[in-house]
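Hi R.,

Here's the chain you asked about this morning:
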Amino acid sequence: MSDTKNQAPAGQGPENSPGKQPGRPIQLGMFNLVVTIGLLVFGVVSIANSLGEYIHPGELVDQMLVSLHAQSAKFPVITYTPTAITTFVGGLLLTLQGANFGLITWWAVSRLRASKPAFWVPILGAFISNALTFIALVALLITDPTIMNAIAEFIKASA
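And here is the predicted structure, written out as C-alpha cells:
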C-alpha cells in the first residue's frame, strides 16, 4: 500500500485553496483595501468641506435653529450670537477632528498592513466625528441663555 492514496492532488489541499493561508481566516484582500482607502478619502473630502463650519460653529447652530423653526412654527425665530466660547469650541472641534482623522488613518493603515479587516475603522471614525460635532453644538446651545429660554418656552407651549 502506498501513502499517496489518501493525499489530495498537488495544489488542491486545504492549504492551497484560494483566499486561505495556513492558520489564517479567509482574507478580504482587494475589497478591504479599496473600501478602506475609499472611506478614508471620503473622510478627507468631508473634513475639507466642513472646515468653515468647524472654524465658525455658530453658523451650524444658526442652521439648527432655522431647522427647528421649520419643523415647528411654535419654535421662535432666533439667531445665535457668537461669543468667546464659540471661538474656543471651534478651535477645539477643528483640533479634535484632525486628531480623530489622524488616529483613524493610522489605525486603518496598520490593520491593512497586518492583512486584517480595516474597512470598519473609517466608519467608526465617522461616528466619532459626528459625536464630536454634536457635543460641540450642544455645548454652544446650553451656554447661550437666549436659546435656552427659547427652548424652555417652546417646551412649555408644546406641553
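One quick note: The mean pLDDT is 85.

Cheers,
M.
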